[in-house]
Amino acid sequence: LPIRDRNCNARLVKRLSTAVRESLGALRDVYANPLLRRLQVANASSIVGGWAYVVALAVFAYQADGAYAVGLLATVRWLCGGIAAPIAGVVGDRFARARVMIASDLIRAGLLGGMALAVLADGTPLLVYGLAVCATLSATPFGPAQAALLPQLARSPGELTAANASTGAVDNVGSFVGPALGGLLVAAAGVESVFATSAVLYLGSAALVASLRHCETDGGEAEDGDGGGLRSALAGFRALADLPRVRLVVALVAAQTVVDGALDVLIVVLALETLDAGAAGLGLLNSAAGAGGIAAALVVGGVAARGRLASSLGVGIALWGLPLALIGIWPEQALALVLLAVVGAGGTIVAVSGDTLLQRAAPPDVLARVFGAVDGVMLVALALGSLTAPFLVETIGVRGTLLVVGALLPVLAVLTWTRLVAIDAAAAVPERQLELLRASPIFAPLPPATVEALALRLELRRAAPGDVLFAQGDPGDEYHFVDSGRVGIAVDGEAVAELGPGEGFGEIALLRDVPRTATVTALTPCTVASCDEATFDELIRPLFADD
Fold first, then answer.
1. Pairwise CA distance, residues 503 & 276, whole Å
2. What confidence tens digit (pLDDT) does each residue in 131-150 have?
């Protein structure tokens, strides 16, 4: 190769290896945290059980009623889940999140056991379908509760990002092992064996989550002012509406999820008809996507931790769609396995980037409801994709459908790339402000996402000795704390105190809605961090609630 090309390749390899090292280091930190480790293993057990039974359910529906049954059942399941998800988010904010996850696991275990018995007894397929819909409904609280629990267990923003990367890896391990397990068990012992195995895996997940119950703040985080019923359920949607940079993210992930819903149907038809690979082949194709997702988890944590979350999302969206279009052009089993691995890699990037953006941007007290709202949108998107796919297959065939739906996502990534890069630029956390907050005994105990949100809104100001920062009687519209140097406090012209690094001032006027009660003057060259009244009310006022 020419020297220029060799240098370019060397730089690319160096960047990739750096990202892998950073991701592996972050993942080691996650699994060194025993609480996160147990949560990840519990999620793995739940994910494996879910994927295994979904493969078995698709085979059961296809053999009983054909491709339309697969698409219709998926549509009904996702629509019901989409309607229930915002309510499930309320449950995750009202009650201890670990207990919500345990209840979800136990109910699913019972329903899957019932499905196994129904198949053994040669019950009507409608009974199995009905139990499957109930299993989908009972699964909806699990994801929002888990996503809202993660920031409580993570010890830093970097660890939170790494925990999401680990969750993405676990999801893909599950989507690798689960379909393979489901396909093999269907081929060897029938769908009832898969349903029974999934029930056992859900019980294992519940047992692991049970050990976390004492490690989180209790439920009741949602404020009574939210009201009950529909108003409380819509709090997550209202929070999303107030986050402009997140709306585009949710829209892109929804588009990817529509294609995902279509793929749930397309991959069954591709495996059983186009490739003639059978049930085991269906499990293998699904597992290929899981393998690609695992590989991506080794890189995405390092990239995302550098603050490139939104642009990483755009890359993941493109990687999710383009391989599907290529499978439509060249429907060969070996190539399909490789391309579906790329799809899995794109899915991990989308999941890690999207979840971390939400966790950093959304208020902690409605975080489960935000994820419930997003899950509701995604489940409806899955239903839309599952419902549309059979009609597209009937009209333009499997290959044509793969080509059309696959091309959609790269086009969207290109059209929105500039806005995604702008989101990254706007969300870059100023390091000095972040270090200052982490060193403060007042702010360090706050959840990492809250500390990041506060750091983004702080403004650093320098003052020379003798400069008056504010005078007694002035309107109070900002809160300040000392970064470096010292300031003096005087009341009615008499010095009463001195403050140094990490100490704050100016809260009395904001808490009591009165003019400034003292004059603050710089005694030495100093730097002061300031935030406005809105930020104070949202993030800092609760810290003074007992004063």
1. 70
2. 999 998 888 888 888 877 87
